[in-house]
């Protein structure tokens, strides 16, 4: 049976703004308070989705969340009509209003961890929504994420959904941003690679000093158990705490994997040799020929990797067996990174082509091409069981582009977030979107 890796990209929501909300994420902190352009952000994302579709990849769409999140503000004690809730939050606690308006759900690599059916004990595709509890503005995403994923992957014969892990730092879980799957073919059993930043219960593991390690070992282990993964099918590895302190807040800022290949920075991990040997051995047992490309620090410094998002790229398998790397424009404007990439594609290795996309609106909040997509490996039967409304077609692309142009503002500043009209605009847009994507009622304003 044929199998595919389907990329579901997060559609940027109408409140996309620069709130400076993510301590440890250099771009989010340095662009705080700049005016954003939500329309441009959403169109940039759609361009990338269309380009992949046009290249023959199966491409899906993941809906944004309801923002401002009035229900979250109510749970913090703001009361009255919806307009009054927003007005009071703006007057008394602006940072909470900003957090409740974040369009951060666009970075769907953080929505969930996904294990394909070939890896799981019950032969279903498993999803665990990420609790994202390191940052308040992201911790409020998972209930809607679960509803949206449930509406996209509804058939319980093929899909199993797990609620987010306990909402405490000891089980901090950032989803697929710290998870990669290696395999020979997408439909064959693979090895799932979980990368954590610290251990919550075992002090022998070092931790970063300056910035938070968002993913714990215990969270990764819990997800592997929930998904019914076998010991032969998992490898756990620790991120180098020193790179977290340089702004690598998720492992997908310093490494990306696909098929039989891991593309990573020399300084990405602790105990790299041992980890690579384990991956090699476990993949060999599955008939796969694991390879890695380590980018040396004297060619690309960690700082260049963080600024350019070289590793926050999409590594895609093409029909001829070669790989394509989708990178953000910031890689081309960094001379060292661009030079490295020129050498990489001509070296006779698996990565033969680089394609560049302008994702500046998302990049300025620390979200590159890989952050914007959730990968779901599916066989033909499973793909047929996915809600067809969320699979991108030329017609859906046109509809979504028109929808964005109709509903989105082209400038948003912090002061605009207090405008009660913005809430109405967002709800009108999202109500229409659930019809376009055939999701049913998934948003709090549609349910309550
Ligand atoms: O969680 N930025 C996101 C970026 C997530 C990137 N995802 C991956 N690497 N997979 C974060 O830090 C910034 C929001 C603001 O400051 O307005 C933000 O949430």
From TrEMBL:
Keywords: Arginine metabolism, Hydrolase. PANTHER family: N-SUCCINYLARGININE DIHYDROLASE (PTHR30420:SF2). The active site is at 174, 250, 371 (nucleophile). One of its GO terms (biological process) is L-arginine catabolic process to L-glutamate. This is N-succinylarginine dihydrolase. Catalyzes the hydrolysis of N(2)-succinylarginine into N(2)-succinylornithine, ammonia and CO(2). Its EC number is 3.5.3.23.
């Amino acid at each position: 049976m044929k199998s595919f890796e389907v990329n579901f990209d997060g559609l940027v929501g109408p409140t996309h703004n620069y709130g400076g909300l993510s301590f440890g994420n250099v771009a989010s902190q340095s662009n705080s308070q700049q005016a954003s352009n939500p329309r441009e952000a959403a169109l940039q994302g759609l361009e990338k989705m269309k380009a992949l579709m046009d290249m023959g990849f199966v491409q899906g769409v993941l809906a944004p969340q309801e923002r401002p999140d009035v229900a979250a503000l109510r749970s913090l004690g703001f009361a009255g009509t919806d307009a009054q809730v927003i007005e009071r939050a703006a007057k008394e606690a602006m940072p909470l209003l900003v957090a409740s308006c974040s369009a951060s759900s666009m970075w769907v690599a953080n929505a969930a961890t996904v294990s394909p059916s070939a890896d799981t004990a019950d032969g279903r595709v498993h999803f665990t929504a990420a609790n994202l509890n390191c940052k308040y503005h992201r911790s409020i995403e998972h209930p809607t994420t679960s509803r949206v994923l449930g509406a996209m992957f509804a058939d319980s014969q093929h899909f199993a959904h797990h609620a987010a892990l306990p909402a405490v730092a000891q089980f901090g879980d950032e989803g697929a941003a710290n998870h990669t799957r290696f395999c020979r073919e997408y439909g064959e059993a693979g090895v799932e690679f979980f990368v954590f930043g610290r251990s919550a219960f075992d002090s022998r593991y070092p931790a970063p000093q300056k910035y938070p390690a968002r993913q714990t070992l215990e969270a990764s282990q819990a997800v592997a158990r929930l998904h019914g993964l076998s010991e032969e099918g998992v490898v756990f590895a620790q991120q180098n705490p020193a790179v977290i302190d340089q702004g690598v807040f998720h492992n997908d800022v310093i490494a990306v994997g696909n098929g039989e290949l891991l593309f990573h920075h020399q300084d990405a991990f602790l105990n790299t040799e041992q980890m690579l040997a384990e991956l090699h051995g476990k993949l060999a047992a599955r008939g796969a020929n694991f390879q890695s490309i380590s980018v040396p620090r004297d060619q690309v410094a960690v700082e260049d990797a963080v600024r350019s998002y070289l590793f926050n790229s999409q590594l895609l398998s093409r029909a001829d067996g070669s790989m394509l790397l989708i990178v953000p424009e910031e890689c081309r404007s960094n001379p060292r990174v661009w030079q490295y990439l020129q050498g990489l594609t001509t070296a006779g290795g698996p990565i033969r082509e680089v394609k560049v996309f302008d994702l500046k609106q998302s990049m300025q909040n620390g979200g590159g091409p890989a952050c914007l997509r959730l990968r779901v490996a599916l066989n033909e039967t499973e793909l047929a069981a996915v809600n067809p409304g969320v699979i991108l077609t030329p017609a859906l692309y046109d509809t979504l582009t028109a929808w964005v142009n109709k509903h989105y503002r082209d400038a948003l500043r912090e002061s605009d977030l207090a405008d009660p009209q913005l809430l109405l605009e967002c709800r009108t847009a999202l109500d229409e979107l659930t019809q376009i994507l055939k999701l049913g009622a998934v948003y709090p304003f549609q349910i309550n």
